[in-house]
Predict the 3D structure of the following.
Amino acid sequence: MDVISRLNVKVSGPADAQPMVFAHGFGCDQHMWRLVAPAFEDRFRVILFDFVGAGGSDVSAYDPERYSSLDGYAADVLDLVHALDLHDVVFVGHSVSAMIGALAEVAEPQRFAKLVMVGPSPRYLNEGSYVGGFAAEDIAELLDSLESNYLGWSAAMAPAIIGNPERPVLGEELTESFCRMDPSVARQFARVTFLSDTRDVLPRVTTPTLVLQCSDDLIAPVAVGTFVRDAIPGSQMTVLQATGHCPHLSEPDETIAAMSAFVREAAA
Amino acid sequence: MPHKNQAREAFFDALVYDDPVQLYERAPCGFLSTTPDGVIVKANATFRTWVGRDAGELVGTMSFVDLLTPGGRIYHETHFAPTLRMHGSVREIALDLLRPDGSRLPVLVSARLDHDDQGEPRVIRIAVFDATDRRQYERELLLAKQAAEESAQRARAYARILQETLIPPIPPAIPMLDLAAAYRPAGADMEVGGDFYDVFAVGEEDYVVVVGDVCGKGVEAAVVTALVRHTLRALAVTHDAPSAMLTRLNVVLLQHESDRFCTVALVRLHRDAEGWSVVLSTGGHPLPLLRRAGEAPAPFGAQGALLGVFDEPKFSETASRLLPGDLLVLYTDGVTEGRRGEELYGDPRLRAVVSAGGDPAQVVDALVADVVAFQDDVPRDDIAVLAIAVPPAG
C-alpha cells in the first residue's frame, strides 16, 4: 500500500504553493489541526496525515519493528515528503511529532524550510540536572495504566465518545475516528514516545525553528521548551498565553497568529 | 386511614428535604464544574469526600487534572481534554483520583463542555462515578484475557512443532537428484493439517518419497499421520516393493482404534550407474504427473484402493526410469480441488503450471502460488506438493 493511503494523507490549498505539513501528536489524529490548518490554505499547500495506528491510517501497515523507535515515524514523514515530491517544507509537529520532525529534518535537511514545534519535549523523564517533568516511576505508571486499563478501555469505549447533539460541529466520520487508536499500537507508541530521548538530535537541526510553548503545560513544561530553544541553533520560542498541551485546540487564534509571523516571513 | 397519611407525610418530607442543593451536594456521584482551562469552580460534597479535600482547598486553586495520578494526567492532556474540546463531551473515561494520603479511587468520568452565546467555551461539567468494584472486575477480565492469549499462543506453538514433526521444514538432500517440497496449511494456524510428505534414505542408493493425506485435521488426524509416517519408515526397511508396504500399512490402519482413512503416493527410488529407477504405488491418491524432457506432463502410475477402509485392497505398481530432464510431481487433492466459488482448480491448471517448465523448486513454488491465488489467498484445504527431477546431463 502506498504512503498516501497508509497515512491517510489529505492535501488542500494551491497545488503549486509551498508545502506545509501538519503532524499530530500521541493520542489523536490529523483532526487536531482542524481549527488551525485551514488558516494557511491561502498561501500554502496544506498536508495533513495520520500516523500508522491513528485515525484513518492503515492499521494493517503497523510493523512493531519499524515503529519500535521514533525513527520509524520519521521515516514515514520522509516517505510522505518523497511520495509528494515536497521541497521547502514547513513542518508543524505537535508534541512527540515535533521530535519526529527534527529526526526527519536531520536525515534530509535539504527538504525542509522551517520547523514549528508545538509543545515539544525531547525527553519526558527527569535525568540528572535535566527536568523533563516526569519521574521514572511516573512514566512506568503511565505505561502500566495504559497497558492494563486506559487505552484498551477507552478504545473499546470510543464509539461512546459521541458528538454533542446540540452542537453538531463534527462529521460522522470524524466522530468515529477521533482519538481512536488500536490499543496494541497505542501501547507501543506511548512507550516509544515517553521513553524516547532525542536531546542529542536537537543541536544537529539546521532548519529555522520556532518553538510554541504553552504557559502551563503538564506534558511539556516551559523549562523543557526553553531547553529545546537553547539546544537548536538559532531557534526562537514564543510563549503562548494558552494553557494545557493543545493550544491549537484551546486557543487556535493565538496559535495561528504566533505561527503566521514565523512561517510567512521570507526565508533568510 | 393512618397508613395513607403516613405515606403522604413521608412523600412531602422527602420532597422538601431533597431540594436542588441537597440533590447536588448529596448526589451518589461526584459533581464538579471547572473553567475551560480546568480550574475547579465548584465541587459537591460527594466529590469532596471522595478526594478527601474541602472546598477551600479545591475551589479556585486546584485543577481537575491535579487530582489525577501522573499517568492519568498524561491521558487527560493527550486524550480527555482534546476530545472534550473537539466533541463537547467525553463519556466513561477510566481514571484514578489521588487523595492527599496517597490512596487512589478508581473512577469513571463523563464530562461536558458548555459554550456561551458567542460559542466560546464557558464551563466544563464533570460527573465522577466510583468504579472500585468495576475496576477490580476489569482487572480480572484483563488477566483472563492475557491468560487466554498466552494459551492460544502456546497452542499455536504446539501446532507448529507438531506440524514440523510431520512435515520436514527442509527435505533432505539426495545426491544426483533435485528435490523440492512445500506445504501450505489451510485455515487457522492453531490447527494441524492432515497432509504430509516424507523423504528418507533406505540404503546408500535407495530412497523413499511419500506424499499422503489423512482425512480430517487437528490432533487426532496428526496422531494417524504420525502412525502412517513411522509405519512406512519401518516397512521400508523390510519391504522393497511399494505395493507390499501399502498392503501392510492398510492392515496397521485397520487395526488402529481410529477410523480415519488416508491416501498415499509412495515412490521408491534406486540410483544405479545409468541414473534413477522409480517404482510407484498409490492408495486412493491422485496420480503424480510425470513430465518427460521436452514433453507435456502426463499422469504416472495406476490408481489403488483407499487405505484403512478395505480388508483386501489391491495396490499395483508402476516402474520406470527417470532420465535427465524428467520431472515427477506428487501432490495432494488440496491442489486440484482448490475452489473458487463453484469452480475447481482442476487438472488442466495443474498441468499448465507443470508444463511451464522449470526445476523442482520453481515448479513447486509456482504451483503453490497459483493454487493459493486461485482461491483468493485463502486455501480451503491443505496443500502439499513435492517434485523430483534428474538434473539435465552436462
Observations:
- The beta strands of chain A are 10-12, 18-23, 44-49, 89-94, 112-118, 209-216, 236-243.
- The two ends of chain A are 38 Å apart (CA to CA).
